[in-house]
Amino acid sequence: MSDIAQHIAVSHKVQFEDLDWEKARRIGLTQHEIESLTYFADIESQTVYYFLEVAKLQVSRDPELLTFLTMWNYEEYFHSHALTRLLTECGVPVESATARSTKIRAGARLKARLEDIVQTLIAKVMPRTFVALWMFWGSLQECLTTQAYEELAHQTSNPVLAELCRRIAKQERRHFAYYYGQAKNRLEGQSWAQRFTRWIAKKFYAPVGGGVKTDAEGARLVAQLFPGDRIFEVMSYIEKRMAARATSVPLRLPEAA
């Protein structure tokens, strides 16, 4: 069975209808958890726009790549719905995932628009390098996202939140595995692509959501989830996971205001 076939075989909408919502309501959420889940839900809801941006590029017309992107978009989209359901059940007033995603995208920062222009240019000038870069960048973001969900599952005293985070993290780990494998295969033996990817990651890396959230918001979330020296342990773990050939780079997070 091919790599993409394995992913298709296990792909599904994250299950959340069977969770014990009464228990979730009884235990409730802390302010920190509300802020984290709202951030997660906002960013997960933007996946459809990331998908649309790359799908319009000629390089994305590769059948396997388009298949994965469709599956990835579908699963991530329902992460936002599941998180919004939990927030609503626990009495947090939030708009629907769809309504909020539209509003967030309408207020996207200039950075998001510039990123779209730049990635379109790179895709046209050096399509093979662009796909390798896209895969490497995706693996970076999925790795940190997985760590964030697992950290929240470990920290919370709400077992329903913990279970939902574990279910989402399981899918994020699978996304990471695909991105990572593709990045490694496409960068292997490609010295120019490796140098370019390393430069982009070193100069522009930031937690996912930088186009619709400020650096301060991203840094605040990271500081809350990974307090003290914990963030250094997490970033060290990610750097080791990403040390594929010459693509290893020292990652730095933006500082909170």
Description:
The chain is an all-alpha fold. It has a single domain, classed as Ribonucleotide Reductase, subunit A (Orthogonal Bundle). 72% of the residues lie in helices and 0% in strands. It contains 12 helices and no strands. The protein has helices at residues 3-10, 21-27, 31-44, 47-55, 63-89, 97-106, 110-125, 127-155, 159-187, 191-204, 215-225, 230-241. Residues 251-257 have low confidence and may be disordered.
Name the beta content range: under 5%
Residues in helices, as a percent range: over 70%
Task: Provide a count of the helices.
Answer: 12
In terms of structural class, how would the helical and strand content be classed? mainly alpha
Radius of gyration: 18 Å
The CATH top-level class label: Mainly Alpha
- Low-confidence region ranges: 251-257
Task: Give the name of the CATH superfamily.
Answer: Ribonucleotide Reductase, subunit A
Which quaternary structure do these chains form?
A: single chain
Q: Compute the number of structural domains.
A: 1
Question: Which fold name fills CATH's third level, the topology?
Answer: Ribonucleotide Reductase, subunit A
- Rounded mean pLDDT score: 84
Q: What is the CA-CA span between the terminal residues?
A: 49 Å
How many beta strands in the DSSP annotation?
0
Give the ordered list of helices and strands.
HHHHHHHHHHHH
Rough shape? globular
CATH architecture: Orthogonal Bundle
Outline the biggest β-sheet: none
